[in-house]
Amino acid sequence: MVLTSNREAIQTQAEPGYDRRKELKAFDDSKAGVKGLVDAGVTKIPRIFIHEKSMLQETDMSIISQFSVPIIDFEGINKGAAQRGKIINNVRDACEKWGFFQVVNHGIPRLLWMK
pLDDT tens digits for 57-95? Predict the structure, then answer.
């Protein structure tokens, strides 16, 4: 077997005879997806979805801390065209750059969305 990465080498050493690529190909070729596994009654997570901790790259927390979800303040959205335009531009920017954002001061009481 030709090993293309250190991760495959680790997995091959840990489980001799296990061909992850073959199992992944069979899963992909089935076109059933995870729903297909559930429908088939699978009760144990297939090996292709399990990664040894030693195979996972350590995440540098300093890199993660550089990112945060955009927070858009809706306060004053009905207090004039200039403020409304600014909020709309913030929403547009968050959608284009992030794909999601958090809204604060939206006027929906916390009790309604906590249920």
Answer: 666 656 656 678 899 999 999 999 999 999 999 999 999
Distance CA 90, CA 41 (A): 46
Total residue length of the chain: 115
53 and 15 inside one domain: yes
Which range marks the domain in which residue 80 is found? 68-113
Residue type (1 letter), 83: Q
**What whole-number distance in Å separates Cα of residue 56 and Cα of residue 11?**
11
- In angstroms, the CA 24 to CA 100 distance is 31
The Cα 71–Cα 102 span in angstroms is: 5
Q: How far, in Å, CA of 115 to CA of 111, rounded?
A: 7
Put simply, whether the predicted model's pTM sits higher than 0.70 gets the answer no
Domains in the chain: how many in total? 2
